[in-house]
Specification:
- By secondary structure, the chain is mostly helical.
- Among the domains are: about 1-60, no CATH class; about 165-260, Serine Threonine Protein Phosphatase 5, Tetratricopeptide repeat, CATH 1.25.40.
- The protein is about 55% helix and about 0% strand.
- The chain has helices at about 65-95, 125-140, 145-160, 165-180, 185-195, 200-215, 215-235, 240-245, 245-260, and strands at about 30, 40.
- The protein has a two-stranded antiparallel ribbon with strand order 1-2.
- Strand 1 (about 30) and strand 2 form a beta hairpin.
- The longest helix is centred in the N-terminal third of the chain and has 30 residues, at about 65-95.
- The termini are far apart.
């Protein structure tokens, strides 16, 4: 005996499967979540107890699954959800956690045999500033732009923590600002040096270097003339910072002499 296919409760079209091929209405039998009465596919309320059928209505349990099998599937599904949540949380933490500066390695010298890098976080602000300045200048000479850009903000931060700054520290800070293209900041430091020590060669050296960086030919020539006019007297003054930066002074002196020709 052949069983006729069920009719769609919405349009009356014979159909098979879970949905009507004509109108898309559900053909699956539902049960009331309250009294377990069978519900029509389109029922909005249970005809027995009046409970809303759109929420909490359940489909019949799949045939062939024992309670033990259903429990196993529920546990497995819960574990999968928990695993996915843990993976997502780990990815989010890794993407948002800020990278802490490696202060213990910031002052390390490059090259084999350098030994254990010094922990500059334990140094005074001036020691930390000088250490970082030397490292940045070394990286600049080697053309290592990445190192210059990485450590210059740290060095300027150490400079800002100084209780007091002499001409030597201001010269270092100005050179660091020039390394990252901050000519205006370097010129401000040059003005401060000359205001506190008129005729100081570092002021004119910084001005001339900044003017060359910004292609200010007239400004460079003026800085060169000022440098040359004070050079002899200043070198006789015996300022200790001049001895520490003699190569830089000699190099600028040569450029200043060439500008006079």
């Amino acid at each position: 005996m052949t069983t006729s296919p069920p009719l769609c409760p919405a349009c009356g079209t014979p159909g098979a499967g879970n949905f009507c091929s004509a109108c898309g209405a559900s053909l699956v039998q539902r049960r009331c979540a309250g009294c377990r009465a069978d519900l029509a596919p389109q029922a909005r309320f249970c005809h027995r107890c009046g409970r809303p059928a759109g929420r909490g209505a359940t489909l019949p349990a799949p045939a062939g699954l024992s309670p033990r099998d259903r429990t196993a599937w529920i546990v497995a599904g819960g574990l999968c959800v928990l695993l996915i949540a843990l993976i997502v949380a780990k990815v989010i933490r890794g993407a948002t956690a800020p990278a802490a500066p490696e202060m213990a390695n910031a002052g390390a010298e490059s090259g084999a045999g350098a030994g254990r890098p010094p922990d500059i976080s334990q140094m005074t602000p001036r020691e930390r500033f000088d250490r970082l300045f030397n490292r940045i200048m070394q990286a600049s000479e080697q053309g290592d732009t990445a190192q210059v850009l990485r450590f210059t903000p740290m060095a300027l931060g150490a400079y800002a923590q100084l209780d007091s700054a002499d001409a030597d520290a201001r010269y270092h800070a100005a050179m660091l600002r020039l390394q990252v293209g901050d000519a205006a900041g370097a010129l401000a430091l040059a003005d401060t040096i000359l205001a506190q020590a008129p005729g100081h060669l570092f002021g004119y050296l910084i001005r001339g270097t900044a003017d060359r960086q910004t292609n200010d030919t007239a400004g460079f020539r003026q800085a060169a003339r000022d440098f040359r006019s004070h050079y002899d007297a200043e070198m006789r003054s015996g300022r200790p910072e001049y001895g520490e930066h003699q190569p830089a002074l000699d190099d600028f002196n040569q450029r200043a002499q060439q500008a006079e020709r």
